[in-house]
Structure formats: C-alpha cells, structure tokens
Amino acid sequence: MKTAIYKDSIEKRISQLIFSLVFIIILTAYVIFTFWYLNNEKNERITLSKGVTKILSQDFLRLILIDEINVASDLTKKLQAFPKIQKVILYNNKDKKIYLYQADIPQESLNIFTQSTPLNYQGKQYGKVYFEFKIESIWEIFLDNIKILFLSLLVFLSLSYILVRLYSAYFTTPLLHLVNFLEKIEFNDHMKHYKIKNPYKDEFGKLYEEINIMLNNINTFLKEKKEAKKQLTLMQRYDGLTGFLNKRGFINSIKNILGKEKDSWSALFYIKVTNLSTINHVYSYQEGDYILKELAKKIKDAFSDSKLNAYVGSGNFILFYKKDIFQDKETLLKETKNIADALVTLLSQTIQHKEKEFTPEIYVGIDLFYAHKDPLEAMKHSHIALQTGKEKEQKIFYYDPKNELQIKEYFNIFKELNDALQNDQLELYYQLQYGTKENIIGTEALIRWNHPKFGLLTPYKFIPIAERTDLIIKIGEWVIENACKQLQLWQKNEKTKDWTISVNVSAKQFYKQSFIPHLETTIAMYKVDPHKIKLELLESLFVKNQQEVSDKMNTLKTIGFQLSLDDFGTGFSSLQYLKAFPLDQIKVDQSFVINMFKNEKDIKIIKTILYLGNLLEMNVIAEGVEEKQHYEKLKKLGCHHFQGYYLAKPQSIDYINKYILKS
Ligand code: C2E
Ligand code: MG
Ligand code: MG
Predict the structure, then answer these.
(1) Contacting residues for 463 by C-beta, under 8 A, at least 6 apart
(2) Could you read off the pLDDT of 129-180 as tens digits, one per residue?
(3) Can you spell out the DSSP letters for 129-193?
(4) If 0-12 CB within 10 Å is exposed, 13-18 middle and 19+ buried, where does residue 94 land?
(5) Pocket around ligand 1: residues whose beta carbon is below 6 Å from it?
(6) Nearest CA residue ID for atom 45, ligand 1
(7) What pLDDT, on a 0 to 100 scale, did the predictor assign at position 1?
(8) Confidence of residue 322 (pLDDT cuts 50, 70, 90)
(9) Sheet holding 308-311, edge to edge
(10) Which of 273, 447, 462, 472 sits 20 to 30 Å CA-CA off 234?
(11) Ligand 1 mean position to 446 CA, how many Å?
C-alpha cells in the first residue's frame, strides 16, 4: 500500500517535470520559428522589390521620361504577375507621382510591408519606386502552422510519456527496493544483522551504503544496550568490589532457597570489620577496598559450603548456611560456633599491603532459625546479635530476643543525639582542678546532655554511641568551641585568668584531618592562649599509626597546646608511649585513687607514676580524689595536682559563677 503511494508520487513529479519542460521547449521553438518566418518574409519582399525594380526599370524609365499610356497598362499587367505586391507608386526625382498600381483586391486588414527602391539607369537616379506588400500576421502564421504545431505536440508528449515511464522506473526501482528492505526489518533487542545488497555506484549506491552503516550502528548500539542491561542486572544483584551478592541480590536469592524448603535449620552469620573506617581514614579508601577484597577472597575459599555469600557495605559480610537433614539445636549450635570461630580466626589475620600492615577487627552475629523465616528478619536478628556482641566485647554472639530492646535503645539514643546538637541540649560542666593548697589551678570540661525525657545524662550514656560514628567529630568540635568561648571569659577575669581548661579528645576526632585546622581557627576566633588548653588523650590512640600520631602531637605542641594522658594505668600503660610522645601531663586513673586505702598495690602504682612523671618532667594529676584522706596522702606522696569529688564535682557554669567566683 505504502509502496504504491511512493510510486505515484515520484512518477507524478517526473511527469510534471518532463511535461513542463516539453511544453516550454515547444513554445520557445514556436516563438523562434514565428520570428524567423516573419523576418524571412520581409527579406523576401525586399529582394522582390529590388528585383521588380530592376526587371521593370525600362518601363519605369519610359514612364518618367515619355509618359506613354500603353507603357503604363503594360506595366500594370506585368505587376499583376506578382500577387504579393499590393501597391506600387512611381515617383520622379521631384517626388511627383508618375504612376500608381493597385492590386485588384485591396485587403486593408492585412499587414502591409512597405519598401522604397531607387530607380537608377547608367549610374544616374531618375526617381524611386514605392512598394506595398501583403504580409502575414502572427495569428495567420499560427493558423497556418496549427496542424504542425498540434502534431509535433502530440509526438513530443507521447515521447515524454515514454520518458516518464522510463525515468520514473529509473528512480523508483532503487527506492522501492530500499523501502521493501526497510519494511522487513524488525527493530527490537534481538534484531538480526541486516545488510542491503548494493548494486549501485551513484547517489543511490551512497544511500544504500549509508543505510548499511546506519543498520550496523543500530546493531552495535542494541548489542551494547543488551550488554549494559546485563551489567545493570548484575550490578543490581552483585557488589562490584567483592563480587559477592549485594543486599538486594542476597534477599532475592535467600527467598528462593527458603521458599523451596520445608523442615530444615538455617544459620545466618553477620560479619563486621569494625575498624574498617579507621583504615579508610588513616590510610585511604583504596587500602580499605583492598582489605575488603582480601577478606572476600578468604571467605570464598574457606567457606565454600556456604549457600550464599553477600557483602552489604560498610564492612559487613553475610554468610548463609542451611542444613538439609534435620538436626537438633545442640549440634547446630556446636557447628555454627566452629564456623564462627574459624571465621574470626581467619579474617582477623594481619593483612600486608604495600609495606603496611592491617589487622581487621572482626565481630560475628549469628541467627539460627528453623524452616521458613523472612530473610530480612534473619538479617536484622544476626545484626542485632553482632551489635550486642560488640557492646559486650564478645567476638561471637548469638541472637537472643532479649538483646533487641537494648539495641533499640541504642538506636534511639543515636537518633536523638543527632538532634540534640541542633537543639542546644548539650552543655559543658566544669570540674575544678586544685593545687596542694586547695587553690584552683584549672578545670576539666565534661559534657552533659539535657535530655528532654531522661533529664541530665552523663557522657557514659552517649559518648560511646557517638564514638561509633562520625557524630563524635561534630560533638568534639562543639566541645572545643564552647570550651574556648568559656576560656575567653576566664582569661579576662582577674580571679580566673591563670586557669587552664582540659578538653577530652576522642581517637576518631584526633585522627580527623580537620582536627588541627579546626583547633587553630577556634583559638584564633576566641583569641585564647593555647598554652591554657590541655588536650586529654587516651592511650588507645597510640596503638596505631604511631608516626602519624606523634607528628600530629608535635604540631599541636608547636602551636602551644598542652597534652595530657588520661586514665593512665588502665590501658597498656606502656613506658614506650611516655618516651615516644610529647606529653605534658599524666592523669592517674581514678580507680587507683579511690581504692588506695583498700589495696596497697594501688598506692605503689601511684607512687610509681609520680616517680615516672618526675623523671620524665611531666606533671601528674590524680583523678577521683573523693575524700580528704586521699588528698592528704597524695600530697605526701608528692602529687601536686588534684581532681575529685572531695574538692569539687563537675558543675554547671552558672554554679561556678554563683558559688565559686562570687565567694
Ligand atoms: P574522664 O575524662 O576520665 O573524666 C573524669 C570522669 O570522672 C568524669 O565523669 C568525672 O565526673 C568523674 N569524676 C571526677 N571526680 C570523681 C570522683 O572523685 N569520683 C568518681 N567516682 N568520679 C569522678 P564524667 O563527666 O561522667 O565523664 C566520663 C568520661 O566521659 C570522661 O572521663 C571522658 O572520658 C568522657 N567525656 C566527658 N566529656 C567528654 C567530651 O567532651 N568529649 C569526649 N570525647 N569525652 C568526654
Ligand atoms: Mg578526661
Ligand atoms: Mg579520666
């Protein structure tokens, strides 16, 4: 159907073109012919007038010279022999009419052509002969030639018709062939490789060639699209880094497996690398990725009987085990414990990469379930088990519904703490630090959370939760800013101008690149003296990346900050650290002070720390001075700085202003 329309259209165009061309040619030819014909007629009359004048010159002369009447009648007879001559007038040299000839039938409507010819004899002019000729008009010529015109039109139009048929076929054949070919193509994802045979070497050939190139491009594009679709499906199901299933792929696959199962036990292992963010921050994300790939390889090689392996991001792997034969829970517990032990042992092995060493910290949460269960539920349970295990510092932990409440509370606190920063619910309390004469030497800034529901919360309730995420960085920055703001006021007051302020710094906060720049900006903003700020660090900070930590500490010292080692005696208490890091102060952990009269060894430890401090030229401050006896004994032992409930509890700034500074 479509083809017929295309055909008509081209034939019509070609016929219009040829017919109009033929028409214009015939018309032009006819006009040229008419003008040529007219011109020819005139020339012929001129020749005739000259000829007649010459032939009849004797007669004309006689008429002029002797005016014989019989000559005139003879002349008239002779002139009648020329039917084209209408009128002849003979003039002598004085322009006097000598003779007049008029044709028998005067036809006034005819076109008249006039011509005067001089009458010469033996080189002398005797007069002139005036002729009037009959001449055909354009219309007469047209009427004369109408038959020829009509006939030639007929011949030419017939010829044109044949040409139209021929030429339209010449154009339409390659086009229709192409249209037929194109109509057969099925454009879809499974499109075949189409190619049209190209017999032409002209523009049609070029068109065919372009169509083939286009079809080839479409084919390549569709192939690429198909491949991309395939890749996308893979990406939607698999994790690009480890090659394991991603969360979505895992849930779909586990649903399939569980859907087919009737009575059997399954176990879901949620494995977390808890120190992954440290590698990412301290080393780089590339190194973090390398570690994850290595761990995935280990899991794949060693736990090949696992039904599914997945990596769900942020250092979390999932392993799914299913037992076909019904087993009692006891055996299952034993088996899964063995798997979990093997997992922790294998994955906690130190990995070396580019001359660096990294030891992953692995925790495993396990959920055991019987027959059908929602995979998301199993994932949630094994994750809760993992979180609880982390809280309790147990590497392997099984899901127990009782722990779920605790985890929920943890998540609630985390969510609320995020808002607490924005809603001004955080506050700094200050615990005064004293010298040997109960004189105030400084303070320690201690954070509190005015919780809208639970009242004033101590840091133990929320700092460990904040420390698991980057929230601790924001909180840490808030503490530094507020402590500096307070120090600015104390610097201006005569009573407090020498007070120092101790600020607790978390490991994550210390490792952050922005830590020192933020400190510098803040001290500049509040115009405070960095020598009056003691940054309290924990020993756990020194375990990793000692060079980087030491460099950072030296930079802080150069700026002017003082560095204090908090809770000394409870952690590694390595003398190596005291030697390697530029510390100004050691804080004896409160547990030694509180128990100093109950356990003799605690006094010995305190003595040793005081001795060490003296030796290494670091000042020593005792925490947890709860009673007067503690204070007195510590003084006797040679301690010069004190902090504890006996001297002052952590207080709000209003309290300090009202009761300490006004007194
Ligand atoms: P810390 O730095 O060792 O702070 C001393 C803790 O001991 C304080 O508890 C203080 O109230 C308590 N304390 C002081 N004197 C005595 C005493 O005589 N007897 C007893 N039993 N306890 C005493 P707080 O304020 O609850 O802080 C607990 C911990 O929370 C701090 O230990 C510190 O590690 C952390 N923390 C507090 N504020 C911040 C902060 O702004 N940032 C960070 N990252 N951690 C903070
Ligand atoms: Mg402290
Ligand atoms: Mg402490």
Answers:
(1) 447, 472, 475, 506
(2) 999 988 888 888 888 888 888 888 888 888 888 888 887 888 888 888 888 8
(3) EEEEEEE--HHHHHHHHHHHHHHHHHHHHHHHHHHHHHHHHHHHHHHHHHHHHHHH---STT---
(4) exposed
(5) 431, 446-447, 458-460, 463, 476, 479, 504, 506, 536, 566-567, 590, 623-626, 643-645, 650
(6) 504
(7) 41
(8) confident
(9) 308-311, 316-323, 265-273, 362-370, 396-398
(10) 273
(11) 6
Q: What's the pLDDT score for residue 327?
A: 66
643 alpha carbon, closest ligand: 1
Nearest ligand 1 atom, CA 646: 18
Residues with CB under 5 A from ligand 2 (ion): 504, 536, 566
Q: What band does 324 get if pLDDT is binned at 50, 70 and 90?
A: low
Number of domains in the chain: 4
Q: What is the pLDDT of residue 107?
A: 57
- Among the bound ligands, the one closest to the CA of 505: 1
Distance 474 CA to ligand 2 centre (A): 18
Q: Residue by residue, what is the 3-state secondary structure of 498-509?
A: CCEEEEECCHHH
Answer yes or no: is 352 within a domain: yes
- The secondary structure of 224-237 as a DSSP string is HHHHHHHHHHHHHH
Q: Whose CA is nearest to atom 22 of ligand 1?
A: 624
User: Which pLDDT band, with edges at 50, 70 and 90, does 620 fall under?
Assistant: very high
If you measure from the C-alpha of residue 464 to the centroid of ligand 1, how many angstroms do you get, rounded to a whole number?
12
Domain end (from 198, 219, 237) = 237
Is the confidence at residue 235, as pLDDT, over 60?
Answer: yes
User: Among 417, 433, 446, 511, which residue has the most ligand 1 atoms within 8 Å of its CB, making it the best to mutate?
Assistant: 446
Task: Give residue 131's domain range.
Answer: 10-139
Both 373 and 504 in a single domain?
no
Residue 586: beta bridge partners?
565, 620
- Residue 180 in domain: no
**The token pair that represents 404 in the structure block:** 């779920």
Distance 427 CA to ligand 1 centre (A): 14
What is the predicted pLDDT for the residue at 134?
A: 81
Domain assignment present for 458: yes
* Claim to verify: residue 534 and residue 565 sit in the same structural domain: yes
